[in-house]
User: What shape does this take?
Amino acid sequence: MIGASELAIFAAVVEENSFSQAALKIGLSKTVISKKISALEQDLNTQLLYRTTRKLSLTDAGKLLYKHAKGINQQANDAFTAINELSQEISGHIIMSVPTISGELLLADLVAKFCKKYPKVTIELRLENKLIDLVEEGVDLAIRTADLADSSLIAVPLLQSSWVVCCSPKYLNSSRHQLEQIDDLKAHNCLCYDLQANGGNEWRFTEYDLQRSILVKGSMSSNNALSLKKAALNDIGIIYVPKCSVYNELQNGSLVQVLNQYKARSLGVFAIYPYTRHKPEKITLLIESIKKEYQSLEHIFN
Assistant: This one.
């Protein structure tokens, strides 16, 4: 008879893409794992996996079974988490995915403090700007400014993050072209931030409650705001980036904000995590800490 343990073993083999690694993960021998999968295929009277010496791949039947089986381990983990938290001791492992700016600006320090406060919690902090599938990659918590397209994810608002158009005083003073209207940007060297969902060379503004956009071009583009900031500090062009990434430079005058009469873009920052019936207490506490930290630094975001 097929039970939850067989489905959990099958899910582990698929996720580890290896009988050996699944055996290590579960704590059984490779031989036992192999026999369990063979018995499962026999009971279902269908092949679930294609096996070669180098890799495993799913048959159509295997894909369908995995779709339903992969939740078994998560439900078990939720149950164990709920029981463990009865002891009031916060423990476990958290995988976080955060944007480079946020990670370098505040989250690396916050995570270190959180681990110090809760010594039985371990955190894997991934700094990455790409959007990922949290469930597919096993990520417990992500910080994102993108729209929440996946309804299976829960989003907790943290704050709004405003953007600014800026450049160095030397670039501004040495340019032969005026910079009074957004249309003037077409004549300037605009360094593009490739993370914008609408395209790095499309800069959007609001004027008198009307949305306006302009296509710009320049000698450099990057998916990293720090790289663009360094380029602007070298007097080569204009950048349009989150205010938090250039806050100190705006304060000390090494960069100056331009086109202030237009309202720049503003994006919500969210803590995002996969839906579970029982959210682990460690995730709740970490989100609370992150929100408090963001709000204490709200002045550099807005």
In short: The domain at 87-154+273-297 is CATH 3.40.190.10 (D-Maltodextrin-Binding Protein; domain 2). Residues 143 and 271 are 5 Å apart (CA to CA). The chain has a mean pLDDT of 84.
